[in-house]
Amino acid sequence: MSGAQPRPPVHLPDGVAEPAGLVDAVLAYEDALMADDVAALDAFFAPGPDTLRGDAAGLLLGHDAIAAFRRGRGGAPQRTLVRLEVRPVGSSGDAALVVAVVAPLGGGRGQQTQLWVRGAGGWVVEAAHVSAPAPAIDTRVWRVVGAPLVAPSDPVAAASGSLAGETIAVKDLFDVEGFRVGAGNPSWLAEAPVADGTAPAVAALLAAGASIRGIAQTDEFAYSVAGANAHYGTPPNPLAPGGLPGGSSSGPASAVASGQASIGLGTDTAGSVRVPASYTGLWGLRTTHGAVSRERLLPLADTFDTVGWLTRSAAVLRAVAIAILGEPSVELAASFLVDPALVAVADSAVQLAFSAGLAGIPVDPVGLGDPDELFETFRVVQAADAWRADGAWVTAHPDAVGAGTAARFAIAAAITPQQESAARAALATHRARLDALLGDRVLLLPSASSAAPSTTADSAELDRVRAATLRLCCIAGLTGRPALSVPMLSAPGPFGGDAPLGLCLVGPRGSDVALIALGEKLAAALGGR
Amino acid sequence: MSGAQPRPPVHLPDGVAEPAGLVDAVLAYEDALMADDVAALDAFFAPGPDTLRGDAAGLLLGHDAIAAFRRGRGGAPQRTLVRLEVRPVGSSGDAALVVAVVAPLGGGRGQQTQLWVRGAGGWVVEAAHVSAPAPAIDTRVWRVVGAPLVAPSDPVAAASGSLAGETIAVKDLFDVEGFRVGAGNPSWLAEAPVADGTAPAVAALLAAGASIRGIAQTDEFAYSVAGANAHYGTPPNPLAPGGLPGGSSSGPASAVASGQASIGLGTDTAGSVRVPASYTGLWGLRTTHGAVSRERLLPLADTFDTVGWLTRSAAVLRAVAIAILGEPSVELAASFLVDPALVAVADSAVQLAFSAGLAGIPVDPVGLGDPDELFETFRVVQAADAWRADGAWVTAHPDAVGAGTAARFAIAAAITPQQESAARAALATHRARLDALLGDRVLLLPSASSAAPSTTADSAELDRVRAATLRLCCIAGLTGRPALSVPMLSAPGPFGGDAPLGLCLVGPRGSDVALIALGEKLAAALGGR
What we know:
The structure is a homodimer of 529-residue chains.
Chain A: E1 10-11, H1 22-34, H2 38-44, E2 52-55, E3 58-61, H3 63-73, E4 79-88, E5 95-104, E6 110-119, E7 122-131, E8 142-150, H4 155-160, E9 167-171, H5 186-191, H6 200-207, E10 211-216, H7 250-257, E11 263-268, H8 274-280, E12 283-286, E13 306-311, H9 314-325, E14 336-338, H10 340-343, H11 348-358, E15 363-365, H12 371-396, H13 403-413, H14 417-438, E16 442-446, H15 459-479, E17 483-492, E18 498-506, H16 512-527
Parallel strand pairs in A: 1-4, 2-7, 9-10, 9-11, 14-15, 14-16
Antiparallel strand pairs in A: 2-3, 4-5, 5-6, 6-7, 8-10, 11-13, 12-13, 12-17, 16-18, 17-18
Helix pairs in contact in A: 1-2, 9-16, 12-13, 12-14, 12-15
């Protein structure tokens, strides 16, 4: 029955017979896998919503989600079967667990556990669990990693500093002495000098006792909130299997969500900390514009660029913020505003989750203005800044940039001086009006317009998501206010089931640390319901 | 029934009832796991030789092997259960697959698939497959890793050099510009300067188009052949789950065997390439003494130190050797010698595997002398050299070195000048005699006295294995001859089943590349039987 795949040694318990046709089915499945014959593979998996397939990226539930994953991955790594352990289940001869030790062509050993059941149409897989050998470095997430890559700068702080024991994933935009800045683009990296110093935003963390785990990937030049990179791939989102991690601080977010670092050091211009925090279920703070040094940081849009952090716990985020910004001088009152017109740009499921999540919290309505008009002002100023920062390089390297980023730079290149100055005038007006409306109160909104989109979403869908999400995010940008994403909501995930969604708190400028404390209180109050 | 572990959401197919007592058993198991209650865990796993447990380290077969692993690991990482997918198998209600999504305390998501079966004593696990989130860097194997860490030095070679596309795991003894040398010891690393140049043995590989994947761990100061490190842990051996990888080039061997790099750049003084090659199923070449530059390489014992390489394929090993040493001028005749007294120091299973492996290959017997006496000469000269290289540092850092290494240095410190000069005189005599006996012929022997010992082997057992293995290895050291380990034998592994064992070919000085060609011929001839 089998094609290319030779029959490996098959072990059964002593005296137990091999179920008829089972090993042939396993070998035929293996042939289909090696040929990426997705129709055959789909047929080998039991139909219905209860079929399971899990690997390092997470557990998929249901035949359709598994089939969609299979279509998106572009084939499995080539491998041979070293041996099969077959364990019939029950006495009917119609069910067996098959555990395969596999030898990937690229080295190492993997394991595949499958529950096979025989029905009218023959043997099918009801559940599969696949382990492939881990790479030395997950290049979707990291560019360089060490144990540590850079030690804390002070032995006392390393032992007893407020960040002792914490590990940093540094977004590949900050100078780290002895390393290049890659900016998410291999051609940029190849020309980059070795940094002769470390960015203050990094050095301050090292001084508080944290070490650098590694330099993490970013969306190209930080000019995206999707969390994909045409050159290095898409960092995984362990909290939403099959979903994008969000960007542009995609590598730090993925690293922290995966437990590979405890502090993601990122930047947030238009949502690049808040969006990945929302998608990957992390705490994320965009700091007040200008509050944290941007020295030795590759700029995207000076007018809006901020430093930000991603953590799994509020406690670590608070410790980081205090280490860099100092203890807060005052508390922030739990006085909340919500702009219904702004919330309405989010997906309906997100609007529902946001409303349900805030049930019982007193909020006052506010009208911040037309979300399209606010975003247009933000977009033009950001694009003009971005072209000023990167335009010369992008022009000199026309084929070096991925399609999505290139499209955004092309639009940025077309901004006229007149458009820019009009937008900057509008920015000043909007900012004054927004400041008057927001005052010392805290604006609540969803951190993103949806949970993590699927990695296989088409560009139209991603454009739609980005447009809505950027409208939510731009209020903090326009006002230079800090914004905290609290991982306390959920919304439909990329393959069904729930995925994380952040609740965003936009506070007064300079309220960064107090905003975290307020977010903790809110999470405690609402988590207790 | 359950203790600390709260009941997570449990999903079953629509209309399917939860098997009685199953979830309680799963939760009780989880409580036992979190408490590292090994007796309870042992009882939850089905007795007998057919029980299965697999994870990233490999598949263990049988209740006893699983129990031994459990006793050796020192507890599982703390985690909570996110949800359980329960799939009853058959209609008896007595078997079910339980797939758990788990949230490790350290972040990320893992998966555990278990086949539970109800017998007279209640529910037990017949098979388990566990996936934990991968770390950013496996610190047992690597100290620093990049994508790449160092690019090929020449763009033309990167595209079309003989080693284009290959990735190097550099043993942490070679200078790599911009990085420190760690030598397998954190205190040494902390004091090490950043290298201002790259060792020629590394640079030559970069010039041929290979890139550096990372800097890989070594047994401390390369002074061991076990493959363990008191500070950084034991690199995994994917070909012998639960087994040591061999050392001292342990990190490079583990990395290459796992598919994390394609070229392991190591050193071999007393077997530090051949032993890990043997244990992990790799091709390994110890080069002719002096044939490859040792500039910018931390020495262990100058008299015997050589550079060596580890690869998964003969083709890559040949390409590396030719890139560094040039094309061979002559072929090596398939004229083989075997010293029965030397082979007899190996474990009996290895002697059997060696004899069976060579059946049909014409060999002539040779008597090289008393293995104990030969090794004693080697040992004293190596120890004197090692103390000269590292004694001052070890003396100044009395608590910085792991127990096993410290014991060897203590013995080295006690070598008197008289003992050393007597040993050096004996070395000259032995070398002349061995050269006369071996001539231009190739000595065949097992690369090690056993397959990989268990990571849980006690020090008496490891001492026994080392003593025997070093007797096999010292012939190449005493004569400065190259030695090739070919992965073509097998012997009983650490937890039963077969594990890799190398066939070692010791050739004339300068025959390095020709020796690889001969090894390939031998492997092809014997592999075809």
